[in-house]
Amino acid sequence: MFYRFAAVLTTLLAVYVYRSGRALYHHVLTAPVLPKGYFAGGDYRDHCVVIKDEIDNRLTHCEHIIFWDHLNEEDIVTNRLILLSCDPGRRASNTVMGPMGDPDPSGDLWIYSTETGSLSPVTLANYPEGHDFHPHGVDVYPSKAGAPSYLFVINHARENSTIEQLLLDPAQPTVATYVRTLTSPYFVAPNALTLTSPTSFYFTNDHLMTRRLPGLLSSILPTIESFGGFLLTWVGHVTVLPDGSIQHKFAALGIAFANGVALTRDGLHLAVASSSLTKVHFYKRDPLTNDLTRDREVTVPFITDNLMYDDDDTLIVAGLPHYPSFMDVVENKPGAKAPSWAVSIRPVGSRQAEDQKDSHSKKMAYDSRAPLSASAIAPASSTDEVETIFQSDGSVYGTSTTGLIDTRTGTFYLTGLYEDGLLVCYPEPRNDLGM
pTM of this prediction? Predict the structure, then answer.
């Protein structure tokens, strides 16, 4: 009996090491040697600046950023704004990482103009009194010819997580008008979402066992689920009906810590971050049924957080290179800093893919320009090119969560979950930066 138990235990351990050993070694047991700062577009000291709220210091602890595009009748972008989801109280109350402390005060939405560089908080109009607002993942539909846009916000409120439906009007871009609160037993631990229409979206649940469990279970079980890499989380698809009820369907099951999610411009491909396994899963999408078919996966050199496609459908991925350093920042230890890393993932052409498959075992090095190459941590992909956009040991900017690239201008944007401000890196040197 003992030998049978030992054999089963050994098998399970071998499976764990095979699936999660690389992530455990590189992102928990060892710390990456990252530079103070690196930007692929040039010297970060001349190209990058952190935009802050100099008045109230509330542009802090920002989880997610998205573009809100204003289109003309020909679907050409005439104005591009950035919406930021921030929560200054995240250190006291975090339903993903903990602790589950005081949920007051509420978080904020911000809007940043890519044209003028102006930064403004977003006012919530007609928002229910006493209803918490702790924004996490967000997405907004483009505005066409001046029409209002629906904005959906995952809200990690004190009692349960909900999804808030708001309305943004280009005529008053700093006011979001409350429409309704979506609740569902399927919203177990909603993290990120991406719209498939003005009133439908995919969303991720990052845990099955959450911080909302009673007593010690709230800290033990979510941690075991995260580090164990158990395939317990999923992607759902929601359609909001005119009466405010929802239709839900399971779109992708069996993901280890499903986190960020992003849809290509043509709506035919979906990317989902698996934080526990430091991977990005790619799916083919049927736009008529919203069914997903697993396509491929790519390993990245950090714990994946949020994903965003740029105008050319290059995927921008940001995340956390070293978990213990991140937790030191979460726990507010003196002098703590946590590194940042953001990469682009671009599919290679069919012929190039065949060439890479043929030479995959011979050529493992890639991302050669970065001070710490992604190839030192993550195996090469035979289907996609991975290249570092930004990395820092936390001195310049830490705890990276979401990266955006405006392909019209080449400007790169980055948020940090426990950072102050928005990192902006320009394609050309700026004499007024002095970072």
Answer: 0.92
Preceding amide of 242 cis, omega within 30: no
Residue type, 101: G
User: 347-361 burial by CB neighbour count: b if 16+ within 10 A, else e?
Assistant: bbeeeeeeebeeeee
> What CA–CA distance (Å, rounded) separates 97 from 162?
18
123's enclosing H/E stretch is strand 123-125
Rounded-to-integer distance, Cα 419 and Cα 35, Å? 18
Nearest to 177 by CA among 223, 124, 222: 124
Residue ranges for the chain with pLDDT beneath 70? 1-20, 92-93, 95-102, 350-363, 431-435
Please report where in the chains the tokens 């967000």 appear, as a residue.
138
Place of tokens 């309704």: 180
Look at the alpha carbons of 8, 12, 13, 18 in this order and tell me if their dihedral is positive or negative. Answer: positive
pLDDT for 410-433, tens place per residue? 999 999 999 999 999 999 998 665
Q: Which residue has the tokens 């439906």?
A: 165
C-alpha dihedral, 210 to 213 to 215 to 216, nearest 10°: -30
Residues 132-175 pLDDT 10s? 999 999 999 999 999 999 999 999 988 889 999 999 999 999 99
pLDDT at 209: 82
- DSSP one-letter code for 26: I
3-state SS assignment for residue 41: coil
Q: What is the pLDDT of residues 212-229, one digit of tens each?
A: 777 787 788 888 888 888
CB atoms within 10 A of CB 191: 28
Residues 6+ positions from 193 with CB-CB distance below 8 Å: 137, 138, 139, 152, 154, 163, 201, 202, 203, 204, 261
DSSP code, position 418: T
The HSE-up count of residue 417 (CA atoms within 13 Å, CB side) is 27
Q: For 313, what's the count of Cα atoms within 13 Å in the CB-facing half-sphere? A: 13
What is the model's pLDDT at position 96? 66
Which among 243, 20, 190, 219 is positioned nearest to 100, based on CA atoms?
A: 219
Pinpoint the alpha helices (H) of 288-407.
Answer: 323-330, 350-359
Q: Output the pLDDT for position 14.
A: 44
Question: DSSP string of 244-312?
Answer: S-EEEEEEEEEESSEEEEEE-TTSSEEEEEETTTTEEEEEEE-TTT--EEEEEEEE-SSEEEEEEE-TT
Q: What is the largest CA-CA distance in the chain?
A: 73
